[in-house]
Backbone:
C-alpha cells in the first residue's frame, strides 16, 4: 500500500468518524449523567431529515443546521419528559423515540417528494474544505503535505468537533459542571443532597446529547451526501452506543473508538470500490462495522462497568 | 383496570395528536377517520387484510412481551424476524423434503423458528459468557442479521432461474394454507361487499399461540416463574425459583416467536424474499415492542394491541391511496402510543406512591 493511498484512507476514516464522534460525545455526556438513550439513531435520523428539509426549502445550509439541531433537541425533550420526569424504562423510551423518528421522517420524506423537494438545490449543502478561512488560505492549506489532504480537505464541521472535544475535556475534571455530571451518573442521591436539581441537570445533558446527534445527522444529509434517504443513518446511532462502551465513558477512549470505526468504514468503502464484491458478498462489508463492534464488546467488555446509576430511573 | 385505562388513554391521545396535525395540514378529522375506518374495516376483505397485517405484529408483540415480562430486554425481535423469514424461505424453495407438502411447510416453519431461537440464544450466550449487555448485543445482532439474511438470499438460497438477487417463489402447495371465504355478511341492514377473502392460516395460529401463552402465564408455575424473574428476581431466588433459567427460557421463546413471525410472513404473505428487502428490517420487530407495551405485556392485551395496530396500518394505506396522507404516519402513532403508555405508567406510579403515603399517615394517626 503506497503512501498516497494511505493518506486518502486516513482522510476517509476521519470523514466517516465525524458523525460518530459528534453523536458519541452527546451520548457519552448523557450516559455519564445516568441516562442511556438508545434513541440516538432516531435523533440522528430526524436531524438528517429536518436539516435536509429546512435546507431544501430555504436554500440555506445554515437553516438546515439550525433545524437539525432544533428537531433533535425537541425529540430528546420528549425523551427527557419520559425518562427524567415520568421515570420510564430508558431502553423502552429510547425505542419509542426510534419509532417516532422513523415515522416522522418517513412522513416528511413522502410530503417533500410529493412537492418536488427531493434534492438539495445547489448551494444548500456544504462543500468540502474550510472555505470560511478565505480562498487564498484554503489553497495554501490544501497544498500542505500530509495534513493538507488529511485535515483541510474535510468538511468544516471537523474543527468544531475538535473544539467540542477540547471543551468537554477541560470541563471534565476541572470544573464544577464536570464533577456534577460525573456524580449524576454515579450517585444522583449525593447530587440531590448537595442541593442540586438532578432532573434539571439531566435535562441539560440530554438536550446537549440531542444537539450533538442532530448535528451528526445534518452532517450526513447536508455534507456527506447532499440528500436524504429514509433510514439513511443505517444503524450508525446504534453503533455509537457500543463506541461509548469501548471508550469506557471517557473522551480519549471514545475518540479512539470512533476513529477506529471510521477506519473500518473507510476500509470497507475502499475494498468494496476495488471490485472485490464478486468474490466477497457486499453484505459482509455492510455488516462489518456491527460485527466488529460486537466482537469488540465480546473481547474487551469484561470488567467495564458504566456509571453506577446508568439506566436507573431517579 | 388501571392498565386498560392507561392503554386506552394513550391511544386516544396519540390519535388526537395526529388528527390535530392533519387538521392543521388541511384534512378534516371526520374525513380522515371515515376513510381510515373504511380502509381498515370497510368490507370483509378489508377486515381480513387488517387481521393478516395484525398477525406478524401479534407474533412480534408476544415475543417482546414474554421477554420483557421476564426481565430480558430483547430488542432483537427485528433480527430474529429477518432470519426466521430467510430460513423458512430457503427451506421451502431449496430443499426437496420427501413426503407430503404439509410436512415440508412445517419443516420450513420449524427452520424459521429455530433460526430465531438460535439468534436469541447467541445474545444470551454473549451475556452469560462475556458480560455483554443483552440490549446492546440484540441491537447489534439485528444489524448483523439484516446483512446475513441478505447474503443468504443472494448466495445460498438464490433462485438459479433469475439474475435478480432473490429466492425462488415458494411453490403454491408449500405456502401456508389460505382460507378462501366467499360470503356476504349482513350486519343489520348493511350488506357488506362480497368476494373472495383470503387469509392465511398463520393468523389463526397466532391467535391460538396467544391463548396458549395466556394459559401458561396465568395458570402454571412456569409462567409464574417468568413473571417473578421480571418483577423481583431477588425474591424469586430467595424463594428457590430457578430465576436465571426462567429468564433464559423466556428469551429463547421470544426468539422462537420472532422467527415464527418471519417464517409465517414469507410462507403466508410475501412468498418470496429479495436481497434488497432483507438488508433493512421489516419494521415488525420494532413495532412489536410498541404492541407489547400497549398490551401491558399481557397476552390478551397484546392481542388487542396487535389488532389495533394492524387496523391502523391497513387504514393508513387507504389514507395514502385516497387522501395522499403518507402511511408512515401510522409509525408516528405507534411511537406516540408508546410514549403515552410510559407517561401513563409514570403518572400511575406517582399517584400510587401518593396514595401509599396518605394511607401511611392515616395508620400513624
Residues:
Amino acid at each position: 500500500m503506497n503512501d498516497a493511498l494511505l493518506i486518502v484512507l486516513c482522510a476517509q476514516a476521519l470523514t466517516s468518524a465525524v458523525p460518530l464522534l459528534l453523536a458519541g460525545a452527546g451520548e457519552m455526556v448523557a450516559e455519564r449523567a445516568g441516562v442511556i438513550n438508545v434513541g440516538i439513531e432516531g435523533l440522528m435520523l430526524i436531524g438528517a431529515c429536518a436539516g435536509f428539509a429546512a435546507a431544501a426549502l430555504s436554500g440555506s445550509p445554515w437553516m438546515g443546521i439550525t433545524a437539525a439541531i432544533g428537531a433533535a433537541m425537541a425529540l430528546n425533550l420528549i425523551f427527557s419528559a419520559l425518562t427524567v420526569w415520568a421515570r420510564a424504562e430508558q431502553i423502552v423510551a429510547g425505542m419509542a423515540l426510534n419509532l417516532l423518528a422513523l415515522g416522522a421522517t418517513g412522513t416528511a420524506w413522502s410530503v417533500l417528494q410529493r412537492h418536488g423537494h427531493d434534492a438539495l438545490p445547489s448551494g444548500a449543502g456544504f462543500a468540502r474544505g474550510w472555505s470560511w478561512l478565505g480562498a487564498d488560505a484554503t489553497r495554501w492549506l490544501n497544498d500542505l503535505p500530509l495534513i493538507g489532504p488529511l485535515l483541510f480537505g474535510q468538511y468544516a464541521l471537523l474543527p468544531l468537533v475538535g473544539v467540542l472535544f477540547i471543551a468537554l475535556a477541560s470541563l471534565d475534571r476541572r470544573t464544577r459542571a464536570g464533577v456534577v455530571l460525573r456524580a449524576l451518573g454515579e450517585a444522583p442521591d449525593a447530587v440531590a443532597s448537595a442541593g442540586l436539581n438532578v432532573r434539571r441537570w439531566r435535562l441539560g445533558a440530554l438536550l446537549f446529547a440531542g444537539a450533538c446527534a442532530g448535528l451528526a445527522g445534518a452532517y450526513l444529509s447536508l455534507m456527506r451526501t447532499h440528500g436524504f434517504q429514509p433510514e439513511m443513518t443505517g444503524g450508525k446511532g446504534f453503533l455509537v452506543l457500543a463506541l461509548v462502551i469501548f471508550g469506557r465513558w471517557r473522551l480519549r477512549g471514545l475518540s479512539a473508538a470512533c476513529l477506529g470505526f471510521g477506519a473500518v468504514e473507510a476500509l470497507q468503502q475502499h475494498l468494496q470500490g476495488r471490485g472485490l464484491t464478486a468474490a466477497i458478498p457486499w453484505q459482509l462489508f455492510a455488516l462489518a462495522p456491527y460485527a466488529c463492534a460486537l466482537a469488540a464488546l465480546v473481547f474487551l467488555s469484561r470488567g467495564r462497568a458504566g456509571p453506577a446509576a446508568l439506566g436507573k430511573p431517579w | 383496570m388501571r392498565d386498560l385505562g392507561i392503554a386506552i388513554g394513550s391511544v386516544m391521545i396519540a390519535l388526537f395528536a395526529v388528527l390535530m396535525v392533519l387538521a392543521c395540514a388541511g384534512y378534516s378529522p371526520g374525513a380522515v377517520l371515515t376513510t381510515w375506518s373504511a380502509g381498515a374495516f370497510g368490507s370483509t376483505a378489508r377486515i381480513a387484510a387488517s387481521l393478516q397485517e395484525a398477525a406478524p405484529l401479534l407474533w412480534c408483540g408476544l415475543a417482546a412481551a414474554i421477554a420483557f415480562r421476564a426481565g430480558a430486554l430483547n430488542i432483537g425481535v427485528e433480527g430474529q424476524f429477518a432470519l426466521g423469514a430467510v430460513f423458512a424461505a430457503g427451506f421451502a424453495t431449496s430443499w426437496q423434503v420427501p413426503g407430503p407438502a404439509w410436512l415440508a411447510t412445517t419443516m420450513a416453519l420449524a427452520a424459521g423458528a429455530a433460526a430465531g431461537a438460535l439468534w436469541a440464544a447467541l445474545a444470551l450466550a454473549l451475556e452469560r459468557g462475556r458480560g455483554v449487555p443483552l440490549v446492546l448485543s440484540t441491537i447489534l445482532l439485528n444489524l448483523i442479521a439484516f446483512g446475513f439474511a441478505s447474503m443468504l438470499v443472494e448466495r445460498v438460497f438464490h433462485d438459479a432461474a433469475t439474475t435478480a438477487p432473490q429466492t425462488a417463489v415458494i411453490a403454491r402447495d408449500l405456502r401456508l394454507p389460505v382460507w378462501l371465504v366467499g360470503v356476504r355478511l349482513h350486519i343489520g341492514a348493511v350488506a357488506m361487499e362480497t368476494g373472495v377473502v383470503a387469509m392465511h392460516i398463520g393468523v389463526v395460529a397466532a391467535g391460538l399461540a396467544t391463548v396458549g401463552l395466556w394459559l401458561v402465564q396465568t395458570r402454571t408455575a412456569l409462567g409464574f416463574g417468568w413473571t417473578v424473574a421480571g418483577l423481583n428476581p431477588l425474591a424469586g431466588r430467595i424463594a428457590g425459583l430457578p430465576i436465571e433459567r426462567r429468564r433464559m427460557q423466556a428469551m429463547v421463546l421470544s426468539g422462537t416467536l420472532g422467527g415464527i413471525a418471519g417464517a409465517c410472513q414469507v410462507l403466508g404473505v410475501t412468498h418470496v424474499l429479495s436481497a434488497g428487502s432483507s438488508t433493512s428490517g421489516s419494521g415488525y420487530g420494532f413495532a412489536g415492542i410498541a404492541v407489547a407495551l400497549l398490551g401491558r405485556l399481557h397476552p390478551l392485551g397484546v392481542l388487542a394491541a396487535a389488532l389495533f395496530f394492524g387496523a391502523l396500518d391497513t387504514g393508513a394505506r387507504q389514507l395514502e391511496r385516497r387522501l395522499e396522507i403518507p402511511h408512515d404516519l401510522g409509525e408516528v402513532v405507534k411511537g406516540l402510543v408508546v410514549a403515552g403508555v410510559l407517561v401513563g405508567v409514570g403518572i400511575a406510579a406517582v399517584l400510587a406512591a401518593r396514595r401509599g403515603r396518605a394511607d401511611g399517615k392515616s395508620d400513624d394517626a
